[in-house]
Amino acid sequence: DPWLRLRELKKAMPKTPLQMLLRGQNLLGYRHYADDVVERFVERAVKNGMDVFRVFDAMNDPRNMKAALQAVRSHGAHAQGTLSYTTSPAHTLQTWLDLTEQLLETGVDSIAIKDMSGILTPMAAYELVSEIKKRYDVRLHLHCHATTGMAEMALLKAIEAGVDGVDTAISSMSATYGHPATEALVATLAGTEHDTGLDILKLENIAAYFREVRKKYHAFEGQLKGYDSRILVAQVPGGMLTNLESQLKQQNAADKLDQVLAEIPRVREDLGFIPLVTPTSQIVGTQAVLNVLTGERYKTIAKETAGILKGEYGHTPVPVNAALQARVLEGGAPVTCRPADLLKPELAELEADVRRQAQEKGIQLAGNAIDDVLTVALFPQIGLKFLENRHNPAAFEPLPQAEAAQPVAKAEKPAASGIYTVEVEGKAFVVKVSDGGDISQLTAASSAPVQAASPVAPAGAGTPVTAPLAGNIWKVIAAEGQTVAEGDVLLILEAMKMETEIRAAQAGTVRGIAVKSGDAVSVGDTLMTLA
After folding, report:
1. How does it assemble (predicted)?
2. What string of DSSP letters covers 516-528?
3. DSSP bridge partners of 169
């Protein structure tokens, strides 16, 4: 339960301000929410222990940050407006100064420069920080990812230019996809006018703790072992890179990563040189994957890609590809107002729907039921599954044990060292194999059995409609026996965190629907046929 986790963290660190990222009008999701949902989410987050909200918008559209920033300040928390840094022919120093001024006019307590891809060069960092501090009396923070190898230098130059705070990560959880190491920066600044006063020995104790914690998640680590210069061209944030690797692995197409990285800048240009930060990073990345896997650019357009082309996410830095926009608008007009202005208040309806489902499924809502309502509102599928299984220990990861298990086996022959996920009788375990074959720290990775993919029934005679991606059926639109025209939406597939419409490639009659909502499908599975 994310709300419980927040309360527990605050209880453990009562004097330490807790900070979260908030995607403006998107909150934690991939769509815009009505203002009443934004207001209530912020209120509940503050009540549960959140102190600082770093509010950003993937389009750098200040209209999409205003409601969230105002809600944060109205509830007495710290509102930090964000510049989602990127480079393109449309982005200049003046772009960032103008956005800073707009955020200050909205009302913020501080400003953050968010370099999610690690593409902020040291000299650009010095110039940007210097110019903002010269013009505005505002606290300024810098957030850089270490993916390209420039982050440490960018932080140091920003400190020289007068930045007030920088983001780092404890060494055992730093670098590659993450941030520069805290200890390295502390040592770099020791004895200077910027000395942090932090104790290296205490930091090492923290690093040692997380070295052990990290081992448990080895199976989820990305492929990156050092710096990656491809990111300087593709501008892929660290989190997006691991997501892409995971997506391609799920599609049995891990060898296509370089092609996808080459396609990403082209998609980004088609979408108006938008910054690559959640959710636009996932949208651009997923569309690039679709373009590569289907073998034809924009043969399939994800629902969220269409949303950007329609203006549903806000202003783009420059106009989008006109032909693509005309294709998705289908004669309609693009959205030019603040997208959330088109949304009616939705909190009451969301609450009624969650209470109805809870009653139907026998779910006991939390004492503060609004927290459960918001969980389902922001994560419709997994949120409801969580509520259904909240009191079922078998559905969750085991609680940490006080002590690691003692060595449990000795290999007959020396084995390569490493950490492996092993499946035994339907249960997954994380196993550490030391040099020489010692096997230790055997822990359950999940107490739930690994489920096999749902079998897909064979469809009847006719032209098969197959799954272009592995994923889950979100919704079946067409009905058995229905006559459809070429281009009609037959069903919606949820794949790679996006909704992809599967359309009819030809006119025909729907026969042999082989799937239903919630079914898992693999690439090439027959979903239905058109006779």
Report:
1. Composed of three chains (alpha, beta, and gamma).
2. -TT-EE-TT-EEE
3. 181
- Classify domain 463-530 at the CATH topology level: OB fold (Dihydrolipoamide Acetyltransferase, E2P) (2.40.50)
H helix or E strand, kind and range, residue 463: strand 463-466
Q: What is the pTM of this model?
A: 0.80
| Cβ-based neighbour number of residue 492 at 10 Å | 17
| Nearest residue to 81 via CA among 93, 94, 69 | 69
Residue 135 in contact with residue 251, Cβ under 8 Å? no
Would you put residue 76 in left (φ > 0), alpha (ψ -120 to 50) or beta?
A: left
Q: How many residues does the chain have?
A: 531
Distance between CA atoms of 182 and 104, rounded to whole angstroms?
A: 30
Task: Please list, in sequence order, all residues whose beta carbon lies within 8 angstroms of the beta carbon of residue 326, skipping any fewer than 6 positions away.
Answer: none
Confirm or reject CATH 1.10.287.370 for domain 231-330, answering yes or no: no
343 in Cβ contact with 34 (< 8 Å): yes
User: What ranges in 75-150 are assigned the alpha helix state H?
Assistant: 93-106, 122-135
Splitting the chain (531 residues) into consecutive groups of 10 residues, what average pLDDT does each group show? 96 97 92 96 98 97 97 98 95 97 97 95 98 98 96 98 98 94 98 97 97 91 84 77 81 90 95 90 90 91 93 95 96 96 97 94 91 94 90 78 44 48 54 50 40 41 86 92 92 81 91 91 91 90
Q: How many CA atoms, within 13 angstroms, populate the side-chain half-sphere of residue 48?
A: 22
Residues near 364 by Cβ (< 8 Å), separated by ≥ 6?
358, 390, 391
